[in-house]
Amino acid sequence: MAEVVDDARRERFESLAVTLIEPLRRYLARRADPTTADDVLAETLLVCWRRLEELPGDPLPWAYRVAANCLANARRGVRRQERLAAKVAVVDPPASVVPGPGDTEAPDLDAALAALRDEDAELLRLWAWEQLTPAEIAEVLDITPNAASIRLHRAREKLRAELGARKGDRPAGHEESDEGSRS
């Protein structure tokens, strides 16, 4: 016999999904190719449906954490596929290599973020792109709000230094001087 879905539960989920879909879609689009992003979005919404009674009052940071976990699972699957493809490639190499997700319109920023630790880059993305507060970031990353604030501050400093290095700027206090040198 088919399971009858409670109408009130369905209505609650549908109203919640309307508020979650676009922020989650943007979050995932910045981190994965379109196909993976769509798959992970569907998986995230499925988890939200299954755990509807457990959702906090502000479900978006919680949903970001679920999406991050689902994306990590998808990436693990891709790595398994790549390992298998590497084994097969030895026998019959592919004719061409397909590039990964497209670059953004800010190559310096992309390069600077890529140079950071993954954890620092993710903190900055959550803060800048998803516009989360440190308390919300803490919920997404399952850390304390104080730790999120400290890590965010440090990550911003690292990004600033990395962008400065790419422009050829020297950090303050590191100017070279001829004073006091014997020539």
Question: Can you describe what's shown?
Answer:
The chain contains seven helices and no strands. It is 68% helix and 0% strand. Helix 5 packs across helix 7 (145-167) and helix 6 (134-141) packs across helix 7. It is globular, with a radius of gyration of 22 Å. Residues 92-104 have low confidence and may be disordered. The chain is mainly alpha-helical and 183 residues long.
Write the layout of secondary structure elements.
Elements: H1 7-29, H2 34-50, H3 59-91, H4 107-115, H5 118-128, H6 134-141, H7 145-167
Q: Note the main sheet.
A: none
Average pLDDT metric: 82
Q: By helix and strand content, what is the structural category?
A: mainly alpha
Helix content: 55-70%
List low-confidence stretches: 92-104
- Tally the beta strands: 0
Q: Could you state the order of secondary-structure elements as H and E?
A: HHHHHHH
| Rg on CA atoms, Å | 22 Å
Large-scale geometry: globular
What separation lies between the terminal Cα atoms?
93 Å
How many helical stretches? Answer: 7
Beta-strand percentage? under 5%
